[in-house]
Specification:
single chain, 2 domains, 10 helices
Length: 127
């Protein structure tokens, strides 16, 4: 696991038994720890993108899948481009498929919005 590697390979963590996670907000780290200890999450809807990122960083595949599902459930036209970018960054097939489906269903409407330029700039959306 990532934490095993951190404790075995890092002198600072080995000497202090402390891992500092500076790249994520406390509530995101709290949800990751909740998941590690209980295999449950609580109310990640508002932070699902950040939970996806931390799950990817620490190779917590099931937490990553839970976050991905949460992002799919709250997917709409206003956040589809942002979520599509997340799906590419973190290699999330399900989220990417949800985004592509929503884009295809609403292409006529989206073509009239400024969001369309963002979507078109995502190269893999066209392929």
């Amino acid at each position: 696991s990532v934490f095993y590697e951190v404790f075995c390979n890092s002198k600072e963590e080995t000497q202090t038994d402390v891992v500092e996670i500076k790249d994520f907000r406390p509530e995101v780290v709290r949800e990751m720890l909740r998941y590690i200890y209980t295999e449950n999450v609580s109310n990640i809807q508002n932070i699902a993108g950040d939970v996806l990122a931390i799950a990817d960083r620490y190779k917590l595949d099931r937490l990553k899948a839970i976050s991905e599902r949460s992002l799919c459930y709250s997917l709409d036209i206003m956040n589809v481009c942002e979520r599509f970018a997340l799906s590419e960054k973190y290699s999330t097939g399900t989220l990417q498929e949800c985004c592509q489906e929503l884009i295809l269903e609403n292409a006529a409407w989206l073509a009239k919005t400024k969001e369309w330029k963002k979507i078109c700039s995502c190269t893999s959306i066209v392929t």
